[in-house]
Amino acid sequence: MSTVYDTSELNNRAAGLAAAAGAVRSGRLVVFPTDTLYGLGCDAFDAAAVRSLLEAKGRGPDMPVPVLVGSWTTIDGLVLSVPRQARALIEAFWPGGLSLVLPHAPSLSWDLGRTRGTVMLRMPLHPVALELLREVGPMAVSSANKSGFAPATTAWDAREQLGDAVPVYLDGGPSGESTASTIVDLTGPDAVVLREGAVPVAEVSEVLGLEVEVAR
């Protein structure tokens, strides 16, 4: 049985965040609003929970699950190193609709799918998301929809697709933007935009002071 909490009402918001944090800590799934789309998330370090997330979406490990963080500094403990380009993009666009792909720290015991030693990180610009992330730490988060179906822009869209596979839904109203994040790969010598989304490629190039390559 799942419960939907309206986070626009103060008491419901507190109750919903407490329920969501409890669910994450016990290895279960939650749906919550972000600044782009609604996300389906769990503890990034709980491999069984990540498998449950992939099962709920009907997806395999071939598409690794991104990780959301609640602060700039969290990234330092998750990646092998934070290059100058990453720092510049974080300062310019976090929190916001930009995801960074970096080599993850080899000491981390997580299983996000077939990552090939990398992790995709983002800090969302949404108060409910940030409050939850700051309470429970890094979360593995994918779009809150069944694989092959339209991403959810409301909590009720997500519940219609995912049902009781998710015990806690945080309703923050319609998502601010119905576009996914822009993804920048920083695992090689040059920055490469893997997907243009909420942040235009031109703005990424301006921050880095060079014309950024866009993957074809």
Automatic annotation (TrEMBL):
EC numbers: 2.7.7.87
Q: Which Gene3D superfamilies match?
A: DHBP synthase
Q: Where is the YrdC-like domain?
A: 14-199
Please classify the protein's predominant subcellular localization into one broad category.
cytoplasm
Arranged from A to Z, the UniProt key words for this protein are: ATP-binding, Cytoplasm, Nucleotide-binding, Nucleotidyltransferase, Transferase, tRNA processing
The record's section on InterPro entries has: DHBP_synth_RibB-like_a/b_dom (IPR017945), Sua5-like_dom (IPR006070), TC-AMP_synthase_SUA5 (IPR050156)
Q: Which Pfam families match?
A: Sua5_yciO_yrdC
The GO annotation for biological process reads: regulation of translational fidelity; tRNA processing
Q: Does the keyword Kinase apply?
A: no
Keyword Nuclease belongs to the record: no
Highest taxon listed in the record's lineage? Bacteria
Q: Where in the cell is it found?
A: Cytoplasm
Tell me what this protein is called: L-threonylcarbamoyladenylate synthase
Q: Which family does it belong to?
A: Belongs to the SUA5 family.
**Quick one: signal sequence residues?**
none
Reactions the enzyme catalyzes: L-threonine + hydrogencarbonate + ATP = L-threonylcarbamoyladenylate + diphosphate + H2O
Organism, scientific name: Umezawaea tangerina
